């Protein structure tokens, strides 16, 4: 079984992104703007695309350790309901968005920006509007 891992976010606030393998499945972090008497830590379990909206779970806790325990409990309930297709939907979206931003950074036009519906990828290959197969086969994992 794949273990959950945490990676520190690069935002100004203390936030930890939680991963199941290569899929970002939630986060634990300090809550902003809450009164000092309220729970200072928040957690969120779920990812989109991949699982339906409303399936996500979230809550608050007084300490990081309490938030981590609550997160893990919610994950234990959600994880058995997921299939590889759920994770794959998230991965495809991750890779598409990373590819799109790379296209923009490289000054390449998207196929939808050309009247012909075709463009050149930053890798040099001609691509149509329906370029998902190209991204999956040539740029798989670009968003890692």
What would you say this structure looks like, in words?
This protein is of the alpha+beta class. Strand 6 (118-120) and strand 7 (126-128) form a beta hairpin. The protein is elongated, with a radius of gyration of 19 Å. The mean pLDDT is 95. It has 2 domains: 4-81, no CATH class; 84-138, no CATH class. It is built from 3 helices and 7 strands. The strands form 2 sheets. The chain has a 5-stranded antiparallel beta sheet. A two-stranded antiparallel ribbon has the order 6-7.
List keywords for this structure.
elongated; 144 residues; two-stranded antiparallel ribbon; 2 domains; single chain; 7 strands; alpha+beta
Count of structural domains:
2
Shape: elongated
Specify the biggest β-sheet: 5 strands, antiparallel
Distance between the termini: 21 Å
Mean pLDDT: 95
Q: Biggest sheet: strands side by side, in what order? A: 1-2-3-4-5
Q: SSE order in H/E notation?
A: EEEEEHHEEH
Helix/strand-derived class? Answer: alpha+beta
Number of strands: 7
**In what range is the share of β-strand residues?**
15-25%
Radius of gyration: 19 Å
Number of helices: 3
Low-confidence stretches: none
Q: Roughly what percent helix?
A: 25-40%
